[in-house]
Amino acid sequence: MSGNEMKYIDEAFRDNWVAPLGPNVDAFEQDIAELVGVKGAVAVSSGTAAIHLALSLLDVQKNDVVFCSSLTFVATANPILYQGGEPVFIDSEPETWNMSPEALEEAFKDAERTGKMPKAALIVNLYGQSAKMDELSAICREYGVPIIEDAAESLGAAYKGKASGTFGEFGIYSFNGNKIITTSGGGMLVSNNTEALGRARFLATQAKDPAPHYQHSQLGYNYRLSNILAGIGRSQLEVLASRVNQRRAVFKTYKRELAHFPGISFMPELEDTFSNRWLTALTIDEGLAGLSPVDLLNLLEQENIEARPVWKPLHLQPLFQNYKYFPHGRTESVSERLFKRGICLPSGSNMTLYDQMRVIAIVKKALSSKVRCNNLENIDELSG
Ligand SMILES: *Cc1c(COP(=O)(O)O)cnc(C)c1O
């Protein structure tokens, strides 16, 4: 928390606006829309709810296909199933770890052959890094398919000077407790289509028809954000830029201290993009480093330090085993490689340099003892 949250919460209590909707919600929506440069925003109860609304607005129905990034958290694709839709998973490419334009093109060619064009393409910006939006947008435009940008992890990031989350017909952000700013739980749907955002508000408040009695002709949801939580969001937005700076500094320190070890590669930042570095992610090539990400997770765990593997690709999840997947190359699945080799180090905005150096010391010790062992083995080999 930034310390200013209570000001907005107190206001809500003083005015007795302890309800979904209210002045904090309106202000939070306006602040976000201004910050990222779109015409409007709708505050909702979670990022997942925002994705669900976007799919609803794009008329995704039973058996409709939606193209979806495979390397992501399950919440990206679950709402496709809520609608009875059929996800088709698209691999990552190595430069952003996000949706591969090559794989997307293959998926479209296949869709043309089978006559099952997608209703939408759901593109994720992983760990705060924007996908290759120019290339992906051009392909989707060619096939006339709208984009939903899952920017749950990338608020505060930019692609060629334009805010992450503003490239599609709809963009979504998450304010879950683990994200770069939080309302404890919450999300935002953004768009330049203000008419569609009006419909989103309608759907998110139980789809109540304008009638003097309770009348409903459409299926709705209870998805709006409360006025209390929006108050937290308003003050969190004030510190977004400093949070991004803190996360980028954490990344920079890890990179400076660890990048020179053999087999260690940090998640890249594509030229002309600005990542919020929500999490510091890197890959470990076990052959070169002498230890696997699981080894490192266990070593950190022994010191009571929690690190995480990279998301397990959705096409490998039991839940999604019956759906199609298009890899980056005929013999190359980038998301699977990133999953096998990837690890996210502790990256909190409030992490002290002391804590970070503790993590770094453990990783260094593990890597240098392995390097020494490898060298000794090599010396044995050399000396016959
Ligand atoms: C967190 C997250 C979501 C879901 O957001 P919630 O607010 O937790 O529902 C969706 N997509 C990605 C990529 C996420 O990281």
Automatic annotation (TrEMBL):
Chain positions with N6-(pyridoxal phosphate)lysine modification: 179
Sorted alphabetically, the keyword list is: Aminotransferase, Pyridoxal phosphate, Transferase
InterPro entries listed in its UniProt record: DegT/StrS_aminotransferase, PyrdxlP-dep_Trfase, PyrdxlP-dep_Trfase_major, PyrdxlP-dep_Trfase_small
Q: Which cofactor does it need?
A: pyridoxal 5'-phosphate
GO molecular function list: pyridoxal phosphate binding; transaminase activity
Q: Which residues form the active site?
A: 179
Pfam families per the UniProt record, alphabetical: DegT_DnrJ_EryC1 (PF01041)
Which SUPFAM superfamilies does its entry note? PLP-dependent transferases
The organism's superkingdom is given as: Bacteria
Q: Does the keyword Nucleus apply?
A: no
For the biological process aspect of GO, one term held by this record is: polysaccharide biosynthetic process
Family per similarity comment? Belongs to the DegT/DnrJ/EryC1 family.
Q: What is this protein called?
A: Pyridoxal phosphate-dependent aminotransferase
Organism, scientific name: Mesobacillus campisalis
